[in-house]
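Lab notebook, design round three. We kept the backbone fixed and only want residue identities now. Task for the bench partner: fill in a sequence for the structure below.
Input C-alpha cells:
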C-alpha cells in the first residue's frame, strides 16, 4: 500500500498504551508515525515493530549523535526494525553522517537517513550561548550542505528555513519540519513555528506534528482538520514528497 501522507504524527505519550490507543484509531495508509526518545525508552524496539507490523511507516526519531562507529552500529540495529526513516544529528559531522549512510546502504532494508540541523526549539541567542557564531539560518544551511554532501537523504529543519534550502539544495532532498502549529495553537517549547499550510506551500516534504494532535481533546478530529489544511495547500504545490517511494 502506498502511503502518500505528508503528516508524521509524533507519538509523544508517557505511556505506550496511550500511544497504541491513538495508533489503533488511525489508518496506516493515511499517516506516518514517529517514535521518539520518551516512547522508545519506555517501550523499546518491540513497540516499534508492532507499529511497523500494523502497516505504519515509522520514523524512529532517536537523533543519534556519537562517534562514527557507534552511530553506524546503531543505524544497522535500527534498520532491522523495518522502519521508514531514522535520524542523526548533523552536528556530529561529515564522518559520522557518512558512516550512517554506509551502514544503511549495507542493510537489506534501507530507511531514509535524515540529519537534524538546528532544533526548532532554538533561536539565534541560544546558538550564541553554545558557541555557534552566526544565525540559525546560516547554521541550518551549513549543516544541510554537509548532510547532503555526506549522503543523507534529507534534513530536519524548521519550515521557516525550507524556502532557503529549496533554493540551495536539490529538489529531491527531503525536508522534514517539526514546529508545526495550526493557527491559534499553543507554541509550547517550540520557537520557530509555522502553520501546516505555510509549511507545505514553502516546500516541506513532511510535517512532524505532536502536541496539537496528541494533546487535543479529540486527537482524531485534530488530525483530520490538519489533513484538510495540508490537502488544500498541496493543490497549490506540484512537487511530490521526497522519499515517497521508500517504501
Ligand atoms: O509536540 P510537537 O509538535 O512540538 O512535537 C514535535 C516533535 O518533533 C517532538 O517529538 C520533537 O522531539 C521532534 N523534533 C523537534 N525538532 C527537531 C527534531 C524533532 O521538535 N529538530
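Proposed sequence:
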Amino acid at each position: 500500500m502506498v502511503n502518500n501522507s505528508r503528516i508524521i504524527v509524533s507519538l509523544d505519550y508517557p505511556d505506550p498504551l496511550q500511544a497504541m490507543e491513538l495508533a489503533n484509531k488511525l489508518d496506516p495508509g493515511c499517516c506516518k508515525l514517529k517514535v521518539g526518545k520518551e516512547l522508545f525508552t519506555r517501550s523499546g524496539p518491540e513497540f516499534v515493530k508492532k507499529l511497523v507490523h500494523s502497516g505504519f511507516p515509522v520514523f524512529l526519531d532517536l537523533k543519534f549523535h556519537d562517534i562514527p562507529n557507534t552511530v553506524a552500529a546503531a543505524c544497522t540495529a535500527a534498520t532491522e526494525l523495518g522502519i521508514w526513516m531514522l535520524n542523526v544529528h548533523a552536528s556530529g559531522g561529515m564522518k559520522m553522517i557518512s558512516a550512517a549512510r554506509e551502514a544503511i546502504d549495507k542493510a537489506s532494508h534501507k530507511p531514509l537517513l535524515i540529519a537534524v540541523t538546528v532544533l526548532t526549539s532554538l533561536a539565534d541567542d541560544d546558538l550564541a550561548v553554545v558557541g555557534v557564531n552566526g544565525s540559525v539560518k546560516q547554521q541550518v544551511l551549513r549543516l544541510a550542505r554537509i548532510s547532503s554532501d555526506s549522503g543523507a537523504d534529507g534534513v530536519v529543519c524548521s519550515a521557516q528555513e525550507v524556502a532557503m534550502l529549496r533554493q540551495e539544495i536539490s529538489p529531491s532532498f527531503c525536508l522534514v519540519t517539526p514546529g508545526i502549529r495550526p493557527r491559534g495553537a499553543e507554541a509550547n517549547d517550540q520557537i520557530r513555528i509555522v502553520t501546516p499550510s505555510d509549511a507545505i506551500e514553502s516546500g516541506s516534504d513532511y510535517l512532524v506534528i505532536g502536541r496539537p494532535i496528541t494533546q487535543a481533546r479529540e486527537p482524531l478530529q485534530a488530525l483530520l482538520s490538519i489533513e484538510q489544511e495540508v490537502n488544500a495547500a498541496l493543490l497549490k504545490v506540484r512537487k511530490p514528497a521526497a522519499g515517497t517511494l521508500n517504501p
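Keep this in mind before ordering anything: Residues 84 and 111 are 5 Å apart (CA to CA).
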